[in-house]
Specification:
Elements lengths: L2 E9 L3 E6 L11 E4 L4 E12 L16 H7 L3 H4 E14 L2 E3 L12 E4 L2 H7 L5 H6 L6 H13 L5 H15 L4 H11 L2
Antiparallel strand pairs: 1-2, 1-7, 2-5, 3-4, 3-7, 4-5, 5-6
């Protein structure tokens, strides 16, 4: 069963933001997640932890603490004053029972549940890599880092990680044939 990690709180046609149910419960950078109703897949591109109330900034509390765990133990209210959110760049959707790796006609609804994809789902979704073009052109400030993290995360879900990495490298070479420096930069991030 898929693990529910959050709920959509902002939504656009190219990305969405989800709020985590657990303060430290955000999926990793590059992780594949999905929503239900409609089924929309996306790649985690940014994770933030911030105060629930922007008028109450986070203050340092550990001056006299021996460890970070002591700060949390001595300030149990922090879990209720802070929240973690993650931004997801849409990488595909399910339409008429077929998985497509292009933008859906509509973004996910606000309050849609967000699930971390299982290794099987990741392997199945990343068998094709059209999503890399979406990520490369997402306009994200660190798109290359997101692409690299996505490929690294997905490789471990494939039965033959080296074959998947080679396939991803070839796909990137086609997409970035006019920008060899960018291609090499991403390939260095995914090299085993």
């Amino acid at each position: 069963m898929a693990r529910r990690v959050g709920e959509v709180v902002e939504s656009t046609s190219t990305s969405f933001v989800a709020q985590c149910y657990q303060l430290e419960g955000a999926p990793a950078l590059g992780g594949l997640v999905r929503t239900d109703s409609p089924d929309i897949y996306g790649v985690v591109g940014r994770v933030t932890t911030e105060p629930l109330d922007s008028a109450r900034p986070v203050l340092a509390r550990g001056e006299d603490a021996e460890s970070e765990e002591d700060v949390i133990r001595d300030n149990p209210q922090l879990a209720r004053l802070l929240t973690s959110r993650f931004e997801v760049f849409i990488a595909g959707h399910v339409e008429d029972g077929v998985t497509r790796q292009y933008l859906p006609p509509r973004p996910p609804r606000v309050h849609s549940f967000v699930y971390a994809c299982s290794p099987e789902e990741v392997s199945q979704f990343t068998a094709r890599l059209d999503l890399l073009r979406l990520l490369l052109n997402s306009g994200a400030p660190h798109a290359d880092e997101i692409v690299g993290a996505c490929i690294r995360q997905a490789a471990s879900s494939h039965a033959q990680p080296a074959d998947f990495l080679a396939h991803a490298g070839r796909t990137l070479a086609v997409e970035l044939s006019a920008d060899v420096a960018r291609l090499n930069s991403i390939l260095r991030r995914v090299a085993p």
